């Protein structure tokens, strides 16, 4: 059995934000996640071959990893390339039309382009017009929500709270902070589709927006970060402050990935493991504590540079393709993997980032790699540790970094990954995501 390619780029406190819900029969719901290279995606380009797709994904991964180190303000995302993240369908207001929005665990706020737009990126679908919705309500400057949003300001003439979402690649969104009904297509039961409406959702109604995405259908961002303004925090009173996702391999993009909330996000299988979840300033991004990595019967220790042994030392990010490790740890890992695989590696490759590559590598040739997190051992199989870059070449899906280590989404493929933000725990359960 040869390795298939599995590029995955998913492309995320407590205050008084209490949404209300309609048309919800159970305490859970799931929404479809559209991969950027899926035929359902506006970014889909059928002319690209495997080598080109992988090169694009790796470049996006490098960009995101580089921006991960910046000191961002809250209401900031690390996404420097929106084309690398998963999308979902949403509807807004009392006269809704379906729109596509980016879903990102590295973003802390929800915002959508709104009319009248002073400066907006091109959007194929109609831009949301608050005047056409009877449920749109701007938030006042003296409200608790406005005061609790870092970087907020006030339009004194209208007594309307203003938000500011800035990005490390100079993208941005500015506008009014408001509440509105958001409606999702619930995919919990495929045979019986239903629509779930969430009212009183706090979001940014963007009047000045800039994202370099070209002529596509995107309308905004749904943040799943740890701030009180992310979607998962706002729906906690009904669904709890938890979510999970299951990402299908790249070669199965005809099947959608899923993002789950509420009871559906609970993970309790017999092979489930759990590890503490940590937040680091600006308390938007998620971190785990990595103790070491085992390859075959050899174990490498992760030397934590943090002064406190109780902090996370590796980010877990659904928007970064490969896994980035400290340079020395990566070098030692590459050496052991090379010794374990009884094949001659290629002398060079054209990926500019992946160092250890083979031609015609088979699953049976690849040693198991185990990530030893605090209280949890996550066992990676061949498709979690190698990627197919095209032309029959597969490469180790890890790279060295001198900055923030990142546990990327290739390593998370075919795991049900659950986040419980109340217990501050992440769960991993090996799963065939295509069959959920």
UniProtKB/TrEMBL annotation:
Coiled coil: none
InterPro entries: Pepsin-like_plant, PEPTIDASE_A1, Peptidase_aspartic_dom_sf, Plant_Aspart_Prot_A1, TAXi_C, TAXi_N
Cellular location(s): Secreted
UniProt keyword Protease, yes or no: yes
Keywords annotated in UniProt: Aspartyl protease, Glycoprotein, Hydrolase, Protease, Secreted, Signal
UniProt xrefs under Gene3D superfamilies: Acid Proteases (2.40.70.10)
GO MF annotation terms: aspartic-type endopeptidase activity
One BP annotation, GO: proteolysis
GO annotation, cellular component aspect: extracellular region
Pfam families: TAXi_C, TAXi_N
Peptidase A1 domain residues: 86-429
Signal sequence range: 1-24
Domain of life assignment: Eukaryota
Protein family (similarity comment): Belongs to the peptidase A1 family.
Protein name, as recorded: Aspartic proteinase cdr1
Species for this entry: Nicotiana attenuata (Coyote tobacco)
Name of the coding gene: CDR1_2
């Amino acid at each position: 059995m040869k390795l298939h390619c599995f590029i995955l780029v998913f492309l995320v406190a407590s205050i008084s934000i209490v949404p209300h819900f309609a048309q919800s029969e159970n305490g859970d719901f799931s929404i479809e996640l559209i991969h950027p290279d899926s035929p359902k995606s506006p970014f889909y380009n059928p002319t690209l071959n495997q080598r080109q797709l992988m090169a694009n994904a790796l470049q996006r991964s490098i960009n995101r990893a580089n921006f991960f180190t910046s000191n961002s303000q809250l209401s900031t995302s690390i996404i420097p390339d929106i084309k690398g993240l998963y999308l979902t369908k949403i509807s807004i207001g009392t006269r809704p039309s379906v729109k596509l929005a980016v879903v990102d665990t590295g973003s802390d706020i929800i915002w959508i382009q709104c009319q009248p737009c002073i400066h907006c990126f091109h959007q194929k679908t109609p831009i949301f017009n608050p005047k056409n919705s009877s449920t749109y309500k701007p938030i006042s400057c003296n409200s608790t929500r406005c005061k609790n949003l870092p970087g907020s300001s006030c339009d004194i003439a209208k007594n309307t709270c203003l938000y500011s979402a800035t990005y490390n690649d100079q993208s941005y969104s500015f506008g009014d902070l408001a509440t509105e009904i958001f409606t999702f297509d619930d995919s919990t039961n495929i045979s019986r589709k239903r629509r779930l409406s969430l009212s009183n959702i706090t979001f940014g109604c963007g009047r000045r927006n800039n994202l370099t995405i070209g002529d596509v259908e995107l309308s905004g961002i749904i943040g799943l970060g740890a701030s009180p303004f992310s979607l998962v925090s706002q729906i906690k009173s009904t669904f709890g402050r938890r979510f999970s996702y299951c990402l299908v391999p790249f070669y199965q993009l005809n099947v959608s990935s899923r993002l789950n909330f509420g009871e559906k996000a609970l993970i309790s299988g017999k092979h489930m493991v759990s590890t503490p979840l940590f937040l680091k300033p600006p308390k938007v991004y998620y971190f785990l504590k990595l103790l070491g990595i085992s390859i075959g019967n050899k174990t490498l220790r992760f030397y934590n540079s943090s002064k406190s042994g109780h902090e996370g030392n590796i980010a877990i990010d659904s928007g970064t393709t490969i896994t980035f490790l400290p340079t020395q740890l990566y070098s030692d890992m590459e050496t052991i993997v090379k010794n374990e695989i009884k094949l001659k590696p290629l002398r060079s490759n054209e990926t500019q980032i992946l160092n250890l590559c083979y031609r015609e590598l088979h699953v049976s040739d690849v040693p198991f790699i185990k990530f030893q997190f605090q209280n949890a051992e996550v066992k990676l199989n061949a498709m979690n540790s190698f990627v197919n870059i095209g032309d029959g070449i597969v490469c180790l899906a890890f790279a060295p970094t001198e900055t923030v280590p990142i546990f990327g989404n290739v390593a998370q493929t075919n795991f049900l990954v659950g986040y419980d933000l109340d217990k501050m725990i992440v769960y991993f359960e090996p799963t065939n995501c295509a069959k959920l």
